[in-house]
Here is the input.
Amino acid sequence: MLKKGVLRKKKDFSAIYNRGNSFGGKYVVLFCKKNNLDYNRIGFLASKK
Here is the structure.
């Protein structure tokens, strides 16, 4: 995976939470939002619990 494809900043994650779509299963929730780039960006978040 290219470094430019990784979400690292809080503002990037916040934009997805606030304006994106979510899809949930029993163990995972996926948040996504369209971008105007030629590649997808991805980020992972884990809770402390």
Remarks:
- The first strand starts at residue 21 and ends at 24.
